């Protein structure tokens, strides 16, 4: 199978790199850069390293996916069977990251276990396996990767929290606004474009060449990920409302704009 050649090697290398970043680079880097990291409990250090790796993954794959979306003529001209070379590389990086993240989650479940994240990772892995193996649906696989643009802000919100920044501090308010806006933009606002392109190719000759299993996986994974994104957007929206209510209180506005005491 094609997946047993270059894509599998890329997945394996990606997995090893993200494991190395989690176990060695992140803890050493932040022990040097951020003295407060040394004083965190073990549970927070573990999640800190997880989120650092998550941010690094997002900073790699999201710009590549945007480049493909804007400039890769092969993928944009043939949404189902276009040249998937660059998309395969990006998906392989993400597959390695997801496998690494699952390993970390299962090995420290009491600290980081989240059933929604496990479902998200497994659905994404199953869907991406078709692209890696058969090179099918590169446009739609790449489109999903652009959602990673929201990840750095989501992780930064947690970093601010464990470092003691008040939820109504200026850094938190700025990051929270960006997080809500970018999350909505790249995960929900783009859905009409995504499903317009789905209906554009539905029933075509190229569509009927896609194996039935791949078609079912494509549709079911798309709907599942969109439901999860709606749930996460609801969480973010409730959090934003809570912060706004707190900020309206006079005592909250009198707090310093950095950390709490």
From TrEMBL:
<dbReference type="InterPro" id="IPR006634">
    <property type="entry name" value="TLC-dom"/>
</dbReference>
<dbReference type="InterPro" id="IPR050846">
    <property type="entry name" value="TLCD"/>
</dbReference>
<feature type="domain" description="TLC">
    <location>
        <begin position="43"/>
        <end position="245"/>
    </location>
</feature>
<keyword id="KW-0472">Membrane</keyword>
<dbReference type="GO" id="GO:0055088">
    <property type="term" value="P:lipid homeostasis"/>
</dbReference>
<protein>
    <submittedName>
        <fullName>TLC domain-containing protein 4-B-like isoform X2</fullName>
    </submittedName>
</protein>
<feature type="transmembrane region" description="Helical">
    <location>
        <begin position="55"/>
        <end position="75"/>
    </location>
</feature>
<keyword id="KW-1133">Transmembrane helix</keyword>
<feature type="transmembrane region" description="Helical">
    <location>
        <begin position="173"/>
        <end position="196"/>
    </location>
</feature>
<dbReference type="Pfam" id="PF03798">
    <property type="entry name" value="TRAM_LAG1_CLN8"/>
</dbReference>
<keyword id="KW-0812">Transmembrane</keyword>
<dbReference type="GO" id="GO:0016020">
    <property type="term" value="C:membrane"/>
</dbReference>
<dbReference type="GO" id="GO:0005783">
    <property type="term" value="C:endoplasmic reticulum"/>
</dbReference>
<feature type="transmembrane region" description="Helical">
    <location>
        <begin position="87"/>
        <end position="106"/>
    </location>
</feature>
<feature type="transmembrane region" description="Helical">
    <location>
        <begin position="118"/>
        <end position="140"/>
    </location>
</feature>
């Amino acid at each position: 199978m094609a997946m047993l050649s270059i894509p599998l090697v890329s997945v394996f290398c990606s997995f090893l790199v993200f494991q190395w970043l989690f176990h060695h680079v992140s803890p050493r880097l932040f022990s040097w850069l951020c003295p407060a990291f040394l004083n965190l409990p073990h549970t927070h250090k573990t999640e800190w390293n997880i989120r650092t790796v998550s941010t690094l993954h997002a900073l790699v794959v999201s710009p590549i996916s945007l480049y493909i979306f804007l400039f890769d003529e092969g993928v944009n001209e043939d949404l189902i069977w276009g040249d998937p070379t660059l998309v395969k590389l990006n998906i392989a990086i993400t597959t390695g990251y997801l496998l690494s993240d699952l390993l970390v989650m299962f090995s420290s479940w009491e600290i980081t276990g989240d059933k929604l994240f496990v479902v998200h990772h497994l659905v994404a892995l199953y869907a991406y396996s078709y692209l890696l193996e058969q090179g099918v649906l590169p446009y739609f696989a790449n489109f999903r990767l652009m959602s990673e643009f929201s990840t750095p802000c989501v992780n930064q919100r947690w970093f601010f929290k464990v470092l003691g920044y008040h939820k109504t501090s200026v850094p938190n308010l700025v990051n929270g606004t960006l997080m809500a806006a970018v999350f909505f933009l790249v995960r929900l606002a783009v859905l009409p474009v995504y499903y317009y392109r789905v209906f554009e190719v539905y029933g075509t000759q190229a569509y009927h060449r896609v194996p039935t299993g791949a078609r079912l996986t494509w549709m079911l994974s798309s709907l599942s990920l969109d439901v999860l994104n709606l749930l996460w957007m609801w969480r973010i929206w409730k959090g934003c409302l809570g912060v706004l209510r707190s900020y309206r209180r006079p005592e909250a506005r009198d707090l310093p704009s950095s950390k709490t005491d």
